[in-house]
Amino acid sequence: MRGTFVIPAKPLYEGKAKSVYSSENPDELIVVFRNDMTAFNGVKHDQFTDKGRLNATASEFFMRMLETEGIPTHFVRMSAPDTMVVRRLEMIPLEVIVRNIAAGSMTKKYPVDEGTVLDRPVVTIDYKDDERGDPMINDDLILVFHILNAEELTKVKEMALKVNKVLRGFFDECGITLVDFKLEFGKSAGTIYLGDEISMDSMRLWDKVTGESLDKDVYRFDKGDVITAYRNVLKRIIPDAVV
Ligand SMILES: Nc1ncnc2c1ncn2[C@@H]1O[C@H](COP(=O)(O)OP(=O)(O)O)[C@@H](O)[C@H]1O
Ligand SMILES: [Mg+2]
User: Fold this and answer.
1) 3-class DSSP assignment, residue 237
2) H or E element in which residue 56 lies
């Protein structure tokens, strides 16, 4: 049991950090945020008590916020603190990344120093395929592979930049710099929805004053206690949250 649901014994899909189950409603899925933490395409793997709940809480908070800003999301409701009921989407196999400041893989691939403020937000897109190491893809390939049509591609980029605008302004007021983040989208009945998660696993966040990492980089690069960092973010974004 998870809230009001009896979770099927076998997940439809077991990802690196979440498990996806079918629900009694064919239009909905149940997503359980697990305590697994992975990095470097699964090479590094650990479990941290409470990690699933902390990420689920952040995801719920941001999906609700984005809905009020007019962005359709897959969020339906929470059925337990680590379990989200979502609209079932036909996922688009792309990782849509928005960057405000150079960091992470960008500074490895290109001659740009970590921390460089970009002249404007930049959208880059990776093809979501673990076996191929999520290679970067471009507009032409997305069209020629029929992953999206031109109108859908424009829409996805517009949505990603709108998400950036909303989140960036919000984090700024919380004393946090939104460096970059990754989104996944999916389709249902011809509409594009924001799917997956918006959490400390999928965003790069720096304390505005100290510059310290408050996201998965704490785990990737052994910068300290990752759960303390995730709790710190939640306390700052949802002051009355029980964390
Ligand atoms: N609304 C949705 N409908 C169907 N699939 C979804 C939805 N939201 C997210 N997913 C998919 O569920 C999986 C979530 O588990 P995760 O652990 O993140 O997997 P992965 O290791 O593939 O990133 C992802 O493959 C994601 O694309
Ligand atoms: Mg994932």
Assistant:
1) helix
2) helix 51-68
Q: What pLDDT, in 10s, does the model give residues 194-214?
A: 999 999 999 999 999 999 999
Q: How many CA atoms lie within 13 A of 156 on its CB side?
A: 28
The two most distant CA atoms of the chain are separated, in Å, by 51
* Residue in 43, 15, 40 with CA at minimum distance from that of residue 29: 15
* Ligand 1 binding site (Cβ under 6 Å of any ligand atom): 13, 15-18, 20, 29, 74, 86-89, 91, 184, 186, 195-196
pLDDT in tens, 131-170: 999 999 999 999 999 999 999 999 999 999 999 999 999 9
Q: Which domains can be identified in the chain, with CATH numbers? A: 13-87 (3.30.200.20), 90-225 (3.30.470.20)
Q: Is 31:22 a contact under the CB 8 Å cutoff?
A: no
